[in-house]
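Chain A, query sequence.
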Amino acid sequence: MAIMDGGVFLILNIFLSKIGFSDPEIASFVSIQYLMSLLIGIPLGMFIQTRRLRPLYFVISITYPLSILLLLYSINVGHSYLIYFCFALLGLSLSTRYVITIPYILRNVNKEQHTEAISVNFATWSAGIVFSGLLINILTKINSSFFTDQVLLMVFCFFGLISVCSLLKMSGKEIIPTLKENKSKLADYDWAIIFKAASPILIIAIGAGLTIPFINLFFYNSFGLEADQFAILGVVTSLLIACGTLLIPKIKKRWGYKSVTVTQSLSIVALTVMASADFINHLQIGLYIAIIAFILRQPLMNLANPMTSEMTMYYVGTKNQEIMSAISSSIWAGSWFFSSLIFRHMRQLDISYGSIFLITSTMYIVGVFLYHLLIKDYYYKVNAQKTVN
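Chain A, predicted structure.
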């Protein structure tokens, strides 16, 4: 499934742009995807608390590729309403996977191995980008007239469908938690703790929604990078992410969660440099600066993600973990929904990519500061608990 993730990320927006959809139209499609993710997140988090999660993976492995295949069909027949439906189905599938993944890991992996397991989960996405990026480049070089963006998307849908085979081979009994209390009511959760843990996620997600979904459009429209060229950037970046992700357990062991804000801050610097390159996109050096900054930005930010996910789950406590995972997914989806609308409006006003990305940098600065406060509070709670014991 990660291979399909990589292919869709690298190709889809560029494909839509090539066949005539404007940036505002693409942003409108993307907003529907994240609106659906927003709507499903919290109800799904409440639903899964005492239920098996593995069957949901089977459903996703079918609906995810189906959404892209239907999208390609709807574009070919010119059915605009079906295009929106496909993006809604895409949002439903991806949101479900995001909501259930961390709870599944926390349930079925020993606590001593949580950091490693979550890090590997993040690394698989990077590995998917590497494989899909290389495949795009190789197939395009073999026969670019046959392996069009549309055909490549169909190839990646095939990878999504065969993920069912991997699921069938999964062994071991799935652990299903039994709650001492009935948590079916919203009032039963520790909302003050959840709100504090969710605050930095909200700020960073809003900023990210202005940048990440449209970063391939930035390179295509500002510098003329085609899908196969952007795929190579994705490969290099993802290799760095994968290598960095595997170092996370050692980083955490040596410096703890405090290392989170350091890597995030360095990532903000790289993003600011990349945004500034848009103002000199008429110069060749502008492209080189953007590429270097892009390659550095994502690995630095992704170094923090497994640790922030783990620390947040520990901070809210066991009884709030499923709903926190759902809220986190809903925050990302909701923020990207509204950010997509804002991005669409900004592009309609002809505001440059660089200016939009600088707004993201500002939002990131606020979010990182909130993470700094949250990490301090987490260690205070841990030390206080040790003192009591």
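The chain has one domain: 2-168+189-388. The chain has a mean pLDDT of 86.
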